[in-house]
Each structure stands twice: as structure tokens, then as C-alpha cells.
Design a protein that fits this description.
The protein is mostly helical. The protein has one domain. 70% of the residues lie in helices and 0% in strands. Helix 2 packs across helix 7, helix 6 packs across helix 8 and helix 7 runs antiparallel to helix 8. The model has no long low-confidence stretch (mean pLDDT 88).
Length: 152
């Protein structure tokens, strides 16, 4: 009989594979690849995002509460703005990330404690959405600053 792992451990162990899955999805989406980025630049935010996600799973918050501030998410939003992404492109990247994370969990469902799996899935969705909201806030702040006239 195999040892059951918590979802945080599975995601921590499978971070690189999940990022690979996400990258493959993104590279197949022409709306996202219209912005030419190297793999390194496209994936730069993900290792920190996964660290934040694993931390959240190991230190749960009540669902729907304000998640922890993620400096990485804020930096990601400003960077994507500078790289020429639209808000819709950022949302699509985030959607693909959730699908990739859930695919990883599906592939390792036998390694997890199924009695709490749904709670973890809800926490993952909440955290990914929270990070997207923080990235979008930063994105919009940069957009707002770009729109202001330059003062001498």
C-alpha cells in the first residue's frame, strides 16, 4: 500500500511537470504566443506562484477570505503589462494554470487523501484567483500611470 500525501506535497513535487504542462498549453494558444517571449520569460513567475500556493495549502485560510499578499503576483502583473499582454491574455494564462494544476492532481489522485481533496481544490482555485486579482491590480496601476500626461 502506498503512502498518501497531502496535495501540497504533490504540487511541490510536481511543480516542474505542472509548469511544463502549462507551458505546452500556452504555446499552443496563438492569442498568447502573439507576444513572443522565451520560455524563461513566459514561466518566470510560476516557481514563486507555486511556493505561495503550497504555503497557502499548508497554512489554510477560510475560503473566500483575503489571501496573503503576493509580491510575485504584483510583479507579474506589471511585467505582463510591459510585455504587451492584454487583461484577457492574463486571465487566459491563469485559467490554463488552474487546468494544469488540476490535471496534475488528477494524475496523482491515488497519492492523495481523497477525503480532503475537494477542500484543497477549492483552496487552489481561491489562491490562483487571488493571485490573478493581485496581478491585475498591478497591471491596471501600470496602465493608469501610462495614461497620465508627463509633467515637467
Amino acid at each position: 500500500m502506498s503512502t498518501k500525501h497531502d496535495v501540497a506535497s504533490v504540487l511541490e513535487r510536481e511543480t516542474a511537470t505542472t509548469i511544463d504542462t502549462w507551458y505546452t498549453r500556452v504555446e499552443a494558444e496563438k492569442d498568447l504566443t502573439n507576444i513572443p517571449l522565451s520560455r524563461k520569460d513566459r514561466c518566470a513567475h510560476l516557481p514563486e506562484m507555486f511556493k505561495d500556493l503550497v504555503f497557502r495549502l499548508r497554512n489554510p485560510l477560510p475560503l473566500g477570505s483575503r489571501a496573503l499578499v503576493s509580491e510575485g503576483a504584483r510583479n507579474h502583473g506589471a511585467l505582463r503589462r510591459d510585455q504587451g499582454y492584454t487583461a484577457a491574455m492574463m486571465v487566459e494564462e491563469s485559467r490554463m494554470l488552474q487546468v494544469s494544476i488540476f490535471q496534475t492532481l488528477q494524475l496523482h489522485v491515488e497519492d492523495t487523501d481523497s477525503s480532503v481533496l475537494l477542500l484543497y481544490v477549492m483552496s487552489i482555485a481561491d489562491e490562483v484567483d487571488s493571485q490573478l486579482a493581485q496581478a491585475m491590480s498591478s497591471y491596471l496601476t501600470v496602465a493608469h500611470l501610462d495614461a497620465k500626461p508627463i509633467q515637467a
